[in-house]
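User: Second chain of the day. Same drill as before.
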Amino acid sequence: MTFCISIKTKDGLVGIADTRITTGSERITARKITLYQHEKHSMFLMTSGLRAARDKALTYFAEIVESEDHTFDRLYKAVNAFGNQIRRVSEEDSKWLENSGLDVNINALVGGQFENDDEHKLYMIYPQGNWVEVSRGSPYFVIGEGRYGKPLLDRVLTYESSMSDAVKSGYLAFDATRASASDVDFPLDVVLYRRDTYRMVEHRYEASDLRELTKWWQKHILEAFREAPDDWVRVVLEQLDKHEATPI
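Assistant: Same format as last time:
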């Protein structure tokens, strides 16, 4: 499984991805974020799905970027090009993978800004090669295992959030996922893009780097749970007590 999240705020973009790869009984570490940047072409690409299929699509796309990048003056054109490579891999490999009970289930997140984009952009690409753009009302996409972190993200994250809060909420969503899904884990790769700069930075965090935050968050979750009002629970507990006190 995979946890990849991309967030768009008014100030820029945040991308966060785990590095756990599960292949049969083996677990290894591998990057799931690829950066492409030169001059006013700045883009990150994050993928989930069958590793052999997505590696093949990324290899094909790298060739496209090398030969045709000058024609991509807006980010959606690069998104279309990667979507075409997903379809290409599907056409080449679907039959053989289906015979083994596997799917070409590539999902991707693409964020960045090219010279003719009026602002930074964020897209999610589906296994069929089509895509949607993030909206201000729901300013993030998750691919892979997203159910555990979604409640937190929906409560605290908005388009107006600072980039610091976006990184923090993205990490805590990853932490919730890591706690419940054994195939999502550190190291954690983070990429940041500030709007109109055409320059991305990335950093890798080990578990030891964020251990204190993880412990702090766990402690305060438990404290908040214990302090949450429970008068409403007593109503039904009193009914249970009365029922148990009534002779049969």
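The radius of gyration is 22 Å.

User: Great, on to the next one.
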